[in-house]
Amino acid sequence: MKEIVAFVRRHQVPASKKALEDAGFPALTIQSVEGRGKQGGIGGWAAEIDPELSKVKPYMDAPETRINWIPKRMLTLIIQDKEVEKVVKVLLEANQTGHMGDGKIFVCPVQDVIRVRTAETGEAAVI
Amino acid sequence: MKEIVAFVRRHQVPASKKALEDAGFPALTIQSVEGRGKQGGIGGWAAEIDPELSKVKPYMDAPETRINWIPKRMLTLIIQDKEVEKVVKVLLEANQTGHMGDGKIFVCPVQDVIRVRTAETGEAAVI
Amino acid sequence: MKEIVAFVRRHQVPASKKALEDAGFPALTIQSVEGRGKQGGIGGWAAEIDPELSKVKPYMDAPETRINWIPKRMLTLIIQDKEVEKVVKVLLEANQTGHMGDGKIFVCPVQDVIRVRTAETGEAAVI
Fold first, then answer.
1. CB of A2 within 8 A of CB of A112?
2. Within a 13 Å sphere around the CA of B78, how many CA atoms are in the beta-carbon half?
3. pLDDT tens-digit readout, A22-78
4. Of C77, C80, C73, which Cα lies nearest the Cα of C95?
5. How do the domains of chain A map onto residue ranges?
């Protein structure tokens, strides 16, 4: 089993969710996080390359203001090993704009999953 | 070492916390998350099967409203390998109602733990 | 690749961020979490050992009040295997006060990383 953790733009959440559901992965968890990438946050020119950021008023008092923390959404889902390639493809298609800030996807090992309702474990508990 | 991640109903947090403490696991982290399971969210009939949801007003404007994201609490704790079975048992007992929405427990590998105060590492830093 | 997850005091975030950036690790994610350690929360004497807590009014109605959940910040970054020692050292230096509540650092395995913008994978996608 694997845990897929995807950091995506906030406005891409509905598209990501729909794409995952259409591909057979309705179960996921969402969290609000803040982050920054290798460019160390985005400057006041951010609104030009990402309209989403023009709405982030608290971070943009002046054109030259540096955005240190960018609001993101973190999607988490647990899948079977053989589904990793498919899920990554779905998330890439739903989130790739080609601009900085498209986010990242992490694939992490999971040793076991337990469904609380039935106490099922392993692959049977994944979905 | 293992990381135990449990997604539980919000109103089960106190019981989970008490059960873990009684079993010798007082240290844990809690986060607010939203999620949905394989049923893809819960419809307006939700209140009938889970009274907790009748309080989730913003999601339930009409009886037929579909709840897409259900508020959950995510509990995380780091334990030793030999403690996995015990902790899972404690969490199952505290959270199993037999109804949809009981949540899931994930067991993930952890390579190392460092206690910042003392710089201790490994098992010595777990608790 | 490894995921470094650090639970630190809220007021140590700027110092942690600066230290990581100076050491060549500008990319990270931050989340607000609540937690408690092996001492099971901190009592009303907390303000004496940690001035930060004197600001946590909702938890401290009376001197003898027990703080059950302490607000913390969770920093997450993905690094290469060979960078683990360096990053842990940077985080220890930025967060070690010697008092309870300094936090913990977890090192977790990551199987793969995908940069959404370019679809790069593996080490090339880490930074």
1. no
2. 28
3. 999 999 999 999 888 876 655 444 444 444 544 444 443 444 445 578 889 999 999
4. C73
5. 2-35+72-126
ipTM: 0.81
Closest C-alpha among B106, C102, C27 to residue A116: B106
Q: What's the CATH number for A2-35+72-126? A: 3.30.70.120
**Would you give per-residue pLDDT tens digits along chain B (127 residues)?**
999 999 999 999 999 999 999 999 999 999 999 888 876 655 444 444 444 544 444 443 444 445 578 889 999 999 999 999 999 999 999 999 998 889 999 999 999 999 999 999 999 999 7
Taking CA atoms, what residue in A is nearest to C30?
A34
Cβ–Cβ contact B111 with A under 8 A: no
Given a contact cutoff of 8 angstroms between Cβ atoms, the answer to whether A47 and A98 are in contact is: no
What residues does C121 pair with on adjacent strands?
A: C114
C73 bridge partner residues: C8, C32
Residue A80 contacts C, CB cutoff 8 Å: no
